Amino acid sequence: xxxxxxxxxGHWPFRQVRNSTCKDLVExxxxxxxxxxxxxxxxxxxxxxxxxxxxxxxDEIKTNRKWKxxxxxxxxxxxxxxxxxxxxxxxxxxxxxxxxxxxxxxxxYNLDHSACIAMVKKCRDMGLPIGLTLRMVDSRPSSWLxxxxxxxxxxxxxxxxxxxxxxxxxxxxxxSTHLEKEDLELFKKSDVFMDTSGRNVLDLAGLMExxxxxxxxFGTHSxxxxxxxxxxxxxxxxxxxxxxxxxxxxxxxxxxxFLGL
Length: 261
Known about the structure:
Protein name: Amidohydrolase-related domain-containing protein
Low-confidence stretches: none
Strand content: 5-15%
GO molecular function: hydrolase activity
Mean pLDDT: 95
């Protein structure tokens, strides 16, 4: 079984992105042998009211009863937008969202903002993981309107330190993964899941040795990135780097445990 921990639907305003609907995503899953996908709606990054995108996701998934068994939606919440508490409550209790994604660079706040910390604490109390993306798109060929600076792993440590008992997903590891000793120890103790989509997951075995093999799992960051690279990084592990149980955990076991599936 393979579970994609990092997929999207919706539209990206700065480049043409195909496969933007749940139907497209499920067809892509079927073609690649993927049993389930954690998905987020791009539109929530750009709508002033992110909840409109969360409702779009809910409405689209419910059009096909089989999709509910395979699609695991995460809500986009903006903690500096008025009414985020109501949005979070509705997303978790009425829309069936299994976690939250935040996009501070696009919504223009820092991770140590008091509203961000309050929201992460609320998610912790509700048992919802928080998804953080180190890079959405490669800044080099992007539109001048898009975000040009990217996160390193160390850049997310302020929120990990502020709410160390929350659950965090760290996705698209594209910047430096170096952490100072004290931060590394905290990170290793924290409930963190990282996907295999980012360009800095070239040495997956080395990353598992540093952070712990239980913290990693398959992810694609599709449709912005391709559908194969995240899987090939697992498939290319040597036998002395990953036994059958470790491969199974990377394909689906770790994300299932992390999300309580």
